[in-house]
Amino acid sequence: MLDQLLIGAILITTLVLFVIDKWRYDIVAMGALLAAAILGLVPTAEVFSGFGSSAVITVAAVLVISHALWRSGVVDALAGLVKKVGDKGWIQMIVLTSLTTFVSAFISNTGAMAIMIPVALQLARARGGNASRVLMPMAFGSLLGGTITMIGTPPNIIIAEIRQAHGLDAFGIFDFTPVGLAVAIAGLLFMWIAGRWLVPAKDGRNTSSAPYDVSAYLTELYIPAQNAFVGTTLYELETKVKENFAVVALKRGNKQITAPPRYQRFRAEDVLIVEADADTLQQILDLTDFQLNAEEELDERFLVSDEITVIEGIVGHDSRLIGRSAADLRLRHRFGVNVLAVARQGQRLKPALANVRFKPGDVLLLQGDNDVLGDVFRRFGCFPLAQRSLRIGSERQLARPLLIFAGAIALSALGLLSVPVAFTLAAGAMVMSNVMPLRELYETVEWPIVVLLAATIPLGAALEATGAATTIANAALWLGQGSAPWVALSLLLVATLLLSNIINNAAAAVLMAPIGISMAETLGVSMDPFLMAVAVGAALPFLLPIGHQSNLLVMGPGGYSFNDYWRFGLPLSIVVVIIAVPLILLVWPLAG
């Protein structure tokens, strides 16, 4: 009994820390694992057994393959077809959500959204509509797509391994399809019909365009002859002005230098294009004796050149920017990148950005060299919103990753190789065939997810070994005492769905699967329908933006608030439960 109380206390503390979100979830999970090991709840030989789990290896391999397909332009090519569907908003919504759902069945949800969000924004701008109408349905569609195959989402991979660990064959790659596909279709139909009333169309700043007007903060400053700053560098000016500002361009006669480097020296009669608010601008004028030129109306033509561009990007859920400011990161000093604006939930923050600490879902407007910006996005875990051209455009090169991926699916579906072996082999083939450079191999793996899985798998085993899972299962069955087994299945599905909204969905699957198995054993029925209920519930966190990275990615561009998610996500969750429970029992009978 003491062991059950201890593992319960550890897991409750872990859940609370996940919700507080002060420390990253992989750190919290590893701390919980070490606490369980110190208390003797996890045997010494099994503490780090999760790192050797086939589920962890499969998740890592799928992430590599997803990035390779993303990098090769395969998904871009599909996204390009969307532009041909016409300019009717409802048709675009059907096509965008359907394509996102389909793609998410085979690559990571985040990778699919990173490609499809720019497409949705571009289409919304072209027809003058609200991107907010389609972005949330796309995010939810990416979650629905993950339920269709085993590789669509990490919870499915985990559930497959848990089944094998209990003496049965692991679920196959398409064993999830009958239930997952039906749930996905039902979810799409609901979104197409009810989305018009339940998905908000944001007023104020039109979310189909940039959520800020940079030109409103651009000013010309003229450097007169004999000025004290003639001959000094931009760096010296930046160090003397206390507030944050950006020199986005320098005009010298008929020549324009966009995003001038920090070592650029000023000359007499240079004209600086400065982005700053009124207070900062006044400070610059007082300090430098530059002359304000307010005669010409400025616009964003000063922000770009052949080498310099401006790109919007979203701060990802695991971005290295989170909790840090532009000043902390010294983006201008290290990379020559100007942070021109930051928008949060569709509203522009104050233009003095030096001390603004970034949050997941923030939309940034960055100015810099094209290649450097791409490196900055990759380095700091951000997703560009600018529409990108195909990375590798030839048909032969597009075919290669598709053939490798199809081969892995065929080998695993036919039972010639196990899923972990087939997909690890495919990931290696992607690298060996130069679909993805070797240098990007380890950068593509979301290591926090890997560590989270490796840490929670032994915790899930401890939950079962100590009998805590059985105790929780008995309590749940007591609530439905005298009811049919489908009631217990429904309770498990709803509980998992709710839990996946506040903690990582992979962790939710690991923690809820032992409870589901104990419920099945107590009822004397097959574990399969209960495992499937956990898989469906863990994959579909619709209620909160923090429930999944797909939800978070659309929060900034869509201008959504927290309340917008549950207003649309709650009825969609109810539809999922109503459809999933009878389907699970039909495809996976209680009798086994």
Structure description:
This protein is α+β, with helices and mostly antiparallel strands and 592 residues long. Among the domains are: 224-289, 2-Layer Sandwich (Alpha-Beta Plaits), CATH 3.30.70.1450; 308-384, Alpha-Beta Plaits. The chain is 56% helix and 9% strand. The protein has a five-stranded antiparallel sheet with strand order 3-2-4-1-5, with no helix packed on it. Helix 8 packs antiparallel against helix 21 and helix 17 (447-465) packs parallel to helix 20 (505-523). 51% of the residues are buried. Mean pLDDT is 83; it is low at 203-211 and 388-396.
Q: What's a concise summary of this model?
A:
This protein has 592 residues and is α+β, with helices and mostly antiparallel strands. The chain has 24 helices and 10 strands.
Give the topology.
Blueprint: H1 2-20, H2 25-38, H3 54-72, H4 74-82, H5 89-104, H6 109-127, H7 132-146, H8 154-165, H9 177-198, E1 218-222, H10 234-240, E2 246-252, E3 255-258, E4 271-275, H11 278-288, E5 291-293, E6 308-315, H12 326-329, H13 331-335, E7 338-344, E8 347-348, E9 363-369, H14 370-380, E10 382-384, H15 395-413, H16 419-432, H17 447-465, H18 468-479, H19 485-500, H20 505-523, H21 528-539, H22 549-553, H23 555-558, H24 562-587
Antiparallel strand pairs: 1-4, 1-5, 2-3, 2-4, 6-9, 6-10, 7-8, 7-9
